[in-house]
Design goal:
The chain is of the alpha+beta class. About 25% of the residues lie in helices and about 30% in strands. It is built from 14 helices and 23 strands. Strand 1 and strand 2 form a beta hairpin. The chain is globular and about 70 Å long. About 40% of the residues are buried.
């Protein structure tokens, strides 16, 4: 027994036979065939097989890119930029594997010994005896032997609460995790890089108010500027329902991958381009007050007009690149070190339509990184900010929407899509905000992590395809006071109004100013872009 899904409608084999008799096509672009044991597509034994157009077959799986775009310079390369022993010590968190729940990560450092730079061994556990600065400081919890984990009492677990923000030097916001979650962002450990040998790193993995596991490691033992994987000591707790003690990870070992970085190695200023997506079906329905269309679906694609806007931006870029004298900012836009896009459909479509032709030229980057932190703010009733797709399913959906375009535009854009590669490592788990809206605290945490991803990066130039409300939040929070004084009119416009569809805003970021001192030091509109009220 087999089923076919064509643009959201499931049909079984009998339904397909009726379509044959009526002379209708059975498999069109974007259809999926599901074959299983006859129990329907919800069966655990079912297998989903993507079916694409015969005229333009695309192997979507082959377009998935390993996350190589986030590799930092080695220590030797960092020394060529500036001494890697100068400046602040940063922790770049990559991934946590083996944990479940709404996982967040806390990190801090403590002296190896209060009165000495040498480590004080703990004979009982075989690890360094390090003073605690978190929620268990008075509970006598020492890291157990890695081969023989110890259990805590139920009373200990019940009273356990996450540490306050002041207890840790750095905290990464929660991510949904059913096996692997990705952050790829750096935060300062608030110590000089030259003194890191005197400290130990404390890292804790939490699921809301439950401690899943922890690790402690002398910072001097962690290599610089390269990915390093460490096993987390699981926290054993007593389950109230069964009265039995079990490991909180639930299924296997928890591990974390990270990098220790020097701020000095990334001290150069960055050029970042904010590109607002083209007009979406949601935008068009809003302007005409067609509310029934707005509520009919989520994660709306581009409208016909929006597809033309994106294509127009692509043509403007092509014309500018053929000029005799290319503006330095425009040159960086045409040949960026990295291109990020919000995983929402309209943003990915805009990236493919507007930037795809230049990215797939000989010598072009050819890569796009999905960046969930760049998604739009989720306001109450905002159906266009919610998705149901993760991982490679986003690519299948975008390809389906691109195929719905007509004429020459359809053929060109599918061909461009097939030449690109996509880094989907940050969207393999749920990446959108659950619930009716996103709180101000959630938006604050996300904008902070978004800016950290741009500031503490090996890339000198970056393009971010995203959304008007989110861009406005970032600018109002991180624009330098000096620029506000110098350009009050543009500062006010960009902080309170929307960038036009397919508008481009060029920003200069200074990592040395940090997240708290206005790292956006310059800003200007390019390519005829405007800010609209």
């Amino acid at each position: 027994k087999y089923w076919l899904k064509d643009r959201g409608v499931w049909s079984n084999s009998q339904g397909l036979q009726r379509q044959r008799r009526r002379g209708r096509g059975i498999v069109r672009g974007g259809a999926h065939v599901c074959m299983g044991n006859g129990a329907g597509c919800g069966s655990s034994a079912a297998k989903v097989v993507p079916v694409v157009s015969v005229q333009q077959a695309v192997d979507v799986q082959s377009l998935v890119l390993a996350p190589k775009a986030r590799h930092f310079p080695t220590a030797t390369d960092a020394e060529a930029i500036g001494s890697n022993q100068l400046g602040e010590c940063l922790l770049f968190l990559e991934q946590v594997q083996g944990a479940r729940g709404h996982v967040h990560v806390c990190a801090s450092v403590v002296p190896l010994h209060p009165d000495s730079s040498e480590a004080s061994p703990n004979p009982k556990a075989g690890h360094l005896e390090i003073p605690r600065a978190g929620p268990e400081a008075d509970k006598g919890f020492n890291p157990p032997d890695r081969d023989r984990p110890t259990a805590s009492s139920a009373e200990d677990h019940d009273s356990l609460q996450p540490a306050s923000s002041s207890s840790f030097a750095a905290r990464w916001p929660p991510k949904c995790c059913s096996g692997k979650s990705s952050w790829y962002s750096a935060q300062s450990l608030q110590i000089p890089m030259a003194e890191r040998d005197k400290y130990a790193l404390l890292l804790e993995i939490w699921d809301q108010k439950t401690l899943l596991g922890k690790l402690q490691e002398p910072l001097g033992d962690v290599p610089e500027h390269c990915s390093h994987s460490m096993e987390v000591i699981p926290r054993a707790v007593s389950r109230k329902t069964t009265g039995k003690t079990s490991m909180t990870s639930g299924w296997g070992t928890i591990s974390v991958s990270l990098q220790i970085l020097s701020l000095q190695a990334m001290a150069h200023k960055r050029t970042v381009f904010f590109v607002r997506h083209a007009e979406s079906v949601w935008n068009a329905a809003q302007s005409k007050k067609h509310y029934h269309k707005m509520a009919r679906e989520t994660d709306h694609p581009l409208s016909v007009r929006g597809a033309r806007q994106a294509k127009d931006l692509s043509e403007r870029l092509a014309t500018a690149s053929n000029g005799k004298q290319l503006d330095p900012e425009l040159a960086a836009f045409l040949k960026p070190d990295i291109v990020y896009t919000s995983p929402l459909t309209r943003a990915v479509q805009t990236a493919v339509l507007a930037l795809g032709p230049s990215l797939t030229e000989p010598g072009g980057l050819g890569e796009v990184v999905f960046m969930p932190n760049a998604r739009e703010k989720h306001n109450f009733g905002g159906m266009d900010t919610v998705s149901k797709k993760t991982g490679v399913s986003i690519l299948y959906s975008v390809l389906d929407k691109l195929r719905s375009l007509t004429g020459e535009l359809k053929n060109d854009v599918v061909d461009t899509f097939a030449k690109l590669h996509f880094d989907i490592s940050e969207v393999e788990e749920q990446w959108w905000t659950a619930g009716s809206s996103e709180s101000s605290a959630q938006v604050h945490a996300r904008t902070k992590e978004f800016m950290a991803q741009l500031l503490y990066s090996p890339h000198r130039s970056a393009v971010v395809v995203g959304h008007s409300h989110f861009f406005r939040s970032v600018i109002s929070k991180y624009l330098a006071e000096e620029f506000k004084t110098k350009e009050p009119s543009l500062s006010q416009l960009a902080s309170a109004n929307k960038l036009m569809n397919c508008g481009v805003l060029c920003l200069e970021l200074d990592p040395l100013k940090g997240l708290d001192n206005g790292p956006i030091t310059d800003m200007k509109l390019i390519l005829g872009s405007e800010i609209i009220k």
